[in-house]
Design goal:
The chain is α+β, with helices and mostly antiparallel strands and 74 residues long. The protein is 42% helix and 24% strand. A four-stranded mixed β-sheet has the order 1-4-2-3, with helices on both faces.
């Protein structure tokens, strides 16, 4: 069963644990904030979807606060 996890800190932990099948980075996220996360995904060959903005990504995650990063975990 897969889960959607929102937030940079939690998403980084999931990537480090090897539990991520896909990641989302908001197209309007501050590049300095998400740079390390993008490198982590690239090293682990995790697909990164950048089609949503922060508000759309929050809606996808069913949360009310805009978010820069989310992941789908196994």
């Amino acid at each position: 069963m897969s889960n959607i996890m929102a937030g940079l800190k939690q998403s980084k932990k999931a990537v480090e644990a090897g539990n991520v099948v896909k990641s989302y980075v908001a197209k309007d996220a501050d590049s300095a904030v998400v740079a390390t996360f993008l490198k982590m995904c690239q090293r682990r060959e995790i697909e990164v979807d950048r089609s949503c903005d922060m508000k759309e990504l929050a809606k996808l995650c069913k949360i009310e606060v805009p978010t820069a990063v989310a992941v789908v975990t196994i």
